[in-house]
Amino acid sequence: MSALPRLLDGAHADGRAISFDEHVRRNGRLDLDRGRDLIRVVDASGLRGRGGAGFPTGTKLRAVAAAGGRPVVVANGTEGEPASGKDKVLLRHVPHLVLDGAEAAAAAVHARRIVVAVSERAPRESHALRLAIGERPRQRRGAEIDVVTVPDGFVAGEETALVNWLNGGAASRRSFRTSRRSRTSRSSRGTARTGSARSGLPRRPGARS
Fold first, then answer.
1. How far apart are CA 47 and CA 43, in angstroms?
2. Order of strands across the sheet with 144-150?
3. For residue 202, is the peptide bond before it cis, meaning its omega torsion is within 30 degrees of 0?
4. What does the DSSP assignment read for 67-105?
5. 117 phi and psi, to 5 degrees?
6. Are the beta carbons of 90 and 141 closer than 8 angstroms?
7. In this structure, are residues 128 and 17 in contact, taking their beta carbons and an 8 Å threshold?
8. pTM
9. Which residues of 53-79 are buried (b: 16+ CB within 10 A; e: fewer)?
10. How far apart (Å, rounded) are the C-alpha atoms in residues 169 and 155?
11. Cα separation of 196 and 115, whole Å?
């Protein structure tokens, strides 16, 4: 069995992001029909959330998919953790890998919109994402993709605070009330976090593809 390519395989030494054509040559083209099998694959992998509860990611995705309504996939690349740079590296060097993961999650939960959230102090990453979205064939997309910049800070990147901010509230966990109409879940391709929120977001200004 051949090994899967490393996340940063083929990254350019000069810092340029891997183009869409390069990404497809190395990783293949995303099949959105197979993306709908993501929940089954995640279940089989045993992937769990990285919080204290370690809740099964497949169970969360299945709950969002079964709830109906208008789900929105939120790829949380804000990365407010001190001295952490893993999300920024992926967004800057291999943005199409992150976008593939978000599109696969959208197909799995029947979402028509994707929001990629990036810290306001990460302009290079925002620029790389916007260029990457422009490279991707529009006719093959399963969902519209928005890029939004989020206030810098550890709390702003916490998932409930982020969803609250995208809905027009403060970037604060304390101001967010969980309800049946607002649920969050995480999945990943690589280490980039992907959340699904049932909401009318984003209300914040962003760059739509």
1. 7
2. 186-189, 192-198, 71-77, 113-119, 144-150, 207-208
3. yes
4. S-S-EEEEEEE---STT--HHHHHHHH-HHHHHHHHHHH
5. -100, 130
6. no
7. yes
8. 0.78
9. eeeebbebbbebbeeeeebbbbbbbbb
10. 14
11. 10
Interval 139-190: pLDDT, tens: 667 799 999 998 876 566 677 888 888 888 777 665 434 433 434 443 333 3
Q: What tens digit of pLDDT does each residue of 34-62 get?
A: 767 899 999 999 999 876 678 999 999 99
Angle subtended by helix axes 123-135 and 86-93, to nearest 10: 40
Q: Which of 187, 18, 7 is nearest to 109 (CA)?
A: 187
Question: 156 by DSSP, 3-state: which?
Answer: helix
Q: State both tokens at 81.
A: 């953790």
CATH number for the segment(s) 20-208 = 3.40.50.11540
Give the Å distances, CA to CA, from 152 to 46, 118, 146.
32, 9, 18
HSE (side-chain half, CA atoms, 13 Å) at 112: 4
